[in-house]
Amino acid sequence: MPQPSRPRKGSLGYGPRTRATSEVPRIRSWPDDDGSPALQGFAGYKAGMTHVVMVNDESNSPREGMEESMPVTVVETPPMRAVALRAYEETPYGKKPITEAWTGEFHEELDRTLSLPEDESFDDDAEELRSLVDDGRVSDLRVVTHTVPSELRNVPKKKPDVMETRVGGGSLDERADFALDLVGEGGEHSVEDVFRPGQYLDVSGITKGKGTQGPVKRWGVQKRKGKHARQGWRRRIGNLGPWNPSRVRSTVPQQGQTGYHQRTELNKRLVDVGDGNEASVDGGFVGHGEVDG
């Protein structure tokens, strides 16, 4: 068969392909959740991959009820802490924060990341936030949470990762009560408080960085063949575009930054939640070690 002809592999919808500004993914869209109020996100540190033998429970599958070997990703999820509740108001220019209530108890490593507020009264700030909710000015509530990587022996850092997590489910009054109680009681919560086994999740993360790469690896263009390769360049593109328009278009596959991009994978099934002993492999994961929890 002849080789297929194509301008490139890879979507132009992910441009510009630059390095992510932070290792903490930015969630730009949160789903509407039913049921009781709860946090809609949780952070973890990837340990590696392995496989499990599980029963296929898909009703439309011809292998329903049979055992299958499935690849799984092991993620360490130590308890997180909620340190503040932030209220947002809907404006013509999008959602803008109008007030926030900070707890008075912070983890000893949190000042590595944030300039912590001083002389703040959580009770006064919480009362102001509740009054804004009663007045109908608040359109969304999000909790400022952070990880505690110092509790994991295989994560080589102490600096916490800080993020905002939306509070979903129930009415706005119920969300405010839930979030204020969570922050006021110390804010510690585990992954079991947010997700349950069998649930489908959207997972965001930063891909492995590969530095500057050429167009063959970055865009999947074909290497030059035959006489074109004997000109001295085998891994370059044939040309940068037409004479007119007299500029190089952004659609031309060129060399540049590869990897270390934020990507989101949809509908990942949470197979199980357990301690580190259930997910460990003999000798630990390569480049990570034993799983703590």
TrEMBL record:
<keyword id="KW-0699">rRNA-binding</keyword>
<dbReference type="GO" id="GO:0019843">
    <property type="term" value="F:rRNA binding"/>
</dbReference>
<dbReference type="GO" id="GO:0022625">
    <property type="term" value="C:cytosolic large ribosomal subunit"/>
</dbReference>
<feature type="region of interest" description="Disordered">
    <location>
        <begin position="238"/>
        <end position="260"/>
    </location>
</feature>
<dbReference type="InterPro" id="IPR019928">
    <property type="entry name" value="Ribosomal_uL3_arc"/>
</dbReference>
<dbReference type="InterPro" id="IPR044892">
    <property type="entry name" value="Ribosomal_L3_dom_3_arc_sf"/>
</dbReference>
<comment type="similarity">
    <text>Belongs to the universal ribosomal protein uL3 family.</text>
</comment>
<dbReference type="Pfam" id="PF00297">
    <property type="entry name" value="Ribosomal_L3"/>
</dbReference>
<feature type="region of interest" description="Disordered">
    <location>
        <begin position="1"/>
        <end position="39"/>
    </location>
</feature>
<dbReference type="InterPro" id="IPR045077">
    <property type="entry name" value="L3_arc_euk"/>
</dbReference>
<feature type="region of interest" description="Disordered">
    <location>
        <begin position="274"/>
        <end position="293"/>
    </location>
</feature>
<keyword id="KW-0687">Ribonucleoprotein</keyword>
<dbReference type="GO" id="GO:0003735">
    <property type="term" value="F:structural constituent of ribosome"/>
</dbReference>
<keyword id="KW-0694">RNA-binding</keyword>
<dbReference type="GO" id="GO:0006412">
    <property type="term" value="P:translation"/>
</dbReference>
<dbReference type="InterPro" id="IPR019926">
    <property type="entry name" value="Ribosomal_uL3_CS"/>
</dbReference>
<keyword id="KW-0689">Ribosomal protein</keyword>
<feature type="compositionally biased region" description="Polar residues">
    <location>
        <begin position="247"/>
        <end position="260"/>
    </location>
</feature>
<dbReference type="InterPro" id="IPR000597">
    <property type="entry name" value="Ribosomal_uL3"/>
</dbReference>
<protein>
    <recommendedName>
        <fullName>50S ribosomal protein L3</fullName>
    </recommendedName>
</protein>
<dbReference type="InterPro" id="IPR009000">
    <property type="entry name" value="Transl_B-barrel_sf"/>
</dbReference>
